[in-house]
Amino acid sequence: MFAAMHLIQGAGGRVITFGSNLACIGAGPLKSRDNAKAYNKEEERELFKHTPAHAFYEKLGGDGVKFNVCFDLYLASPLNFESLDLASLNRAVQMTGGDLVYYSKFDSEKHGYKFYYDLFRSVSKITASQVRIKARCSKGLSVTEYFGGFGLRELADFQLASLDSDKTFGFTLRNDKSLNESKAVHVQVAVLYVNVFGETRLRILNQSFQVIKPINQYFKQCAAETFCQYLLMQKLARIDRLGSMQVREEIISKVVDILASYRSQCAPNSIPSQLVIPESLKLMPIYVLSALKSNGLRLLSTMRQLDTKIAHIQSLLSSPFTKMALRLYPRIYQITSAYQLGSTQ
């Protein structure tokens, strides 16, 4: 990765690396940090952190942004569950805006076609380079953080070596003072990038929102899919600070707080034993429960190891909005009639 980056640093581009063993020799040697004794404990958060001992990949990612080089990693673990230390390798991917694709217990017959289409998609999707992103908003609001496949950025703006059509990111707005109901609130996201033809472009996204005071009107405007993706991305981006247990607890607590607030503010006379959920958020508990059962949020065990969890977390952080709901609650198709029709021909 280091050599390939310096080979193309003058022009920039994408470095696609394939591996199936722990990088234990040469530049940036790694040691497995997977420690089953730390699973689901306070010490677990250290398994997700980028430690000083692995600073090589932190610097590699920073140099990648400087030289406009993006890193994609296609990694396959052997059948013996050998850890590849994705927590360190993924840092170079996050900082440059690349892809992390991981195949646990790789089997060519099982994963061959998936690997082919994953790689095909990687080299064929619409991609921008030399990306700089900044969000602005009206007075009374401020942007406090950005989060996505690049992790968590608590900055006014940030840069990536690459951004493609399969990525998404979010940001948090903080209400600093009372807003005037007679005026709309404006939010603008500006993305400066270079397209595949070498042309510098500026894409500006503008959105205005009406300020509303009654909390029941606020709940009516909510979108369950959007809120769930925002909540999951915001919490997962802090996995290295909080650990798996606390991330799960904070997600559940946020959902409980929202439903409790709705009951107390909008339905105070409801029967205590009655479940009261806003119509706009009636699917929220299903999406959240499905997310908690996904590999990215399920607790670690001897059958669910660290590298698999990190790969799924990275995938959830990068997943585009159009696909997130399907990942959390996949569609079900009836194939009985199609099978019977095929058997008669």
TrEMBL record:
A Pfam family the protein falls into: Sec23_trunk
Listed InterPro entries: Beta-sandwich_Sec23_24, Sec23/24_helical_dom, Sec23/24_helical_dom_sf, Sec23/24_trunk_dom, SEC23_SEC24_subfamily, vWFA_dom_sf
GO biological process, one term: COPII-coated vesicle cargo loading
Sec23/Sec24 trunk domain: residues covered: 3-123
SUPFAM superfamilies: beta-sandwich domain of Sec23/24, Helical domain of Sec23/24, vWA-like
Annotated signal peptide: none
Residue ranges annotated for the Sec23/Sec24 beta-sandwich domain, each copy included: 129-211
Coiled coil regions, renumbered to chain: none
Any one GO molecular function term: SNARE binding
Entry GO CC: COPII vesicle coat; endoplasmic reticulum exit site
Domain annotation Sec23/Sec24 helical: ranges: 225-324
PANTHER family associated with the record: SEC24-RELATED PROTEIN
Protein name: Uncharacterized protein
Origin organism lineage: Eukaryota, Sar, Alveolata, Ciliophora, Intramacronucleata
